[in-house]
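Many introductory courses stop at the sequence. We go one step further.
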Amino acid sequence: MMLYFWLKAFHVISIIAWMSALLYLPRLMVYHVGSEPGSVQSETFKVMERRLLRVIANPAMIAAWIFGLWLAYVSQAWTMPWFHAKVTLVLLLTIAHMAMARWVRKFGTDSNTHSARFYRIMNEVPTVLMIGIVIIVFVKPF
């Protein structure tokens, strides 16, 4: 039983770090769009985005998946319908993460093709998915 609580704690910690990165990264991109390619400001944004992705977002996502799957195994959550809905939303969150990683690479080569408005809209995707995940986990509507 103690293992369950430790796994749950590390899962939540991982999620907090992952969500923080996913909420901040598109906001950085909104500002990056407005900077001249090759400028000091643009190069600073490149470093910030790359480090946020590699040092926080990627490890946090991996940890969230590892602790989450381990937690599901220990609690046998995979047998419950709400868990399947949660995993679907987490997969969508992972796809959003992968899209952000692609955008970071595009900015890194000065080949961004999206507007600030696009990144403002994309900034809301992790929030909407997070709300759905939290509601499913706590309310367990099915």
